[in-house]
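Field log, afternoon session.

UNIT: design team B
ACTIVITY: writing a sequence onto a fixed backbone
BACKBONE:
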């Protein structure tokens, strides 16, 4: 693994605008970024011209790797059109992976095939993410969505922190989703609380070793949502060293 295999999520510094967070993360040593289209202060409006945003990333020496799409809602036609518009914007930014979202499992299933058909020519990898408290929180939810859509073009995002939050260990989740995992979100936690890497309950070295042994080729997205947010930049720097050191020792 090298720096090109590691992505930093904008949720780690949600109070910072895009120029600020890009500057902080680039100075730490990150080269890849995961974009939000809502919630975080650095969220990008996908209705705008993507060219200035792409130039902004390039000036900072950062690349967009993954992109959170707006969710499919009860009005499937209208929200599907928005999701596909965001896909085209993500492609223009140079993204490789898009996170397909919906407000309910029936909405995931209702729009799934049409979404995949509409996005198929863009060369993006669409994934479904588990997130505690949302429509896809558990492995059962995950399976209901993947099996309900029934299309191998839709991959899985293994979110070890949010699985931990609902009492599912990464080993069991990995075995159930093995063969469809295109992206991995990493976070250390005590219970539901994010903590600095190496100080929590999640066996991240075990995760890295298992995925490396099985030939995982995707990237790892670092997430940090600690209580003492003023220390987040230092924790992000420590996390980058933690991950890269493991793979240097393993090589």
């Amino acid at each position: 693994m090298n720096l090109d295999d590691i992505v930093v999520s904008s949720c780690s510094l949600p109070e910072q605008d895009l120029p600020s967070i890009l500057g902080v993360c680039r100075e730490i040593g990150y080269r890849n970024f995961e974009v939000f289209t809502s919630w975080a202060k650095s969220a990008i409006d996908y209705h705008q011209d993507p060219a200035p945003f792409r130039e902004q990333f390039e000036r900072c020496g950062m690349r967009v790797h993954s992109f959170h799409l707006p969710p499919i809602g009860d009005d499937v036609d209208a929200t599907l059109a928005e999701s596909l518009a965001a896909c085209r914007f993500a492609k223009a930014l140079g993204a490789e992976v898009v996170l397909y979202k919906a407000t309910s499992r029936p909405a995931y299933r209702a729009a799934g095939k049409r979404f995949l058909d509409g996005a198929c020519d863009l060369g993006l990898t669409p994934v479904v993410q588990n997130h505690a408290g949302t429509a896809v929180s558990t492995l059962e939810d995950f399976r209901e969505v993947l099996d309900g859509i029934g299309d191998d073009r839709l991959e899985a995002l293994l979110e070890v922190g949010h699985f931990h939050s609902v009492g599912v260990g990464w080993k069991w989740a990995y075995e159930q989703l093995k063969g469809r995992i295109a992206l991995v979100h990493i976070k250390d936690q005590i219970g539901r609380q994010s903590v600095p890497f190496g100080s929590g309950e999640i066996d991240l070295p075990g995760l890295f070793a298992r995925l490396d042994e099985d030939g995982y080729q995707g990237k790892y997205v670092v997430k940090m949502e600690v209580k003492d947010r003023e220390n987040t930049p230092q924790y992000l720097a420590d996390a980058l060293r933690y991950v890269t050191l493991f793979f240097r020792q393993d090589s």
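LOG NOTE: The first strand starts at residue 6 and ends at 9.
NEXT ACTIVITY: expression trials, pending approval
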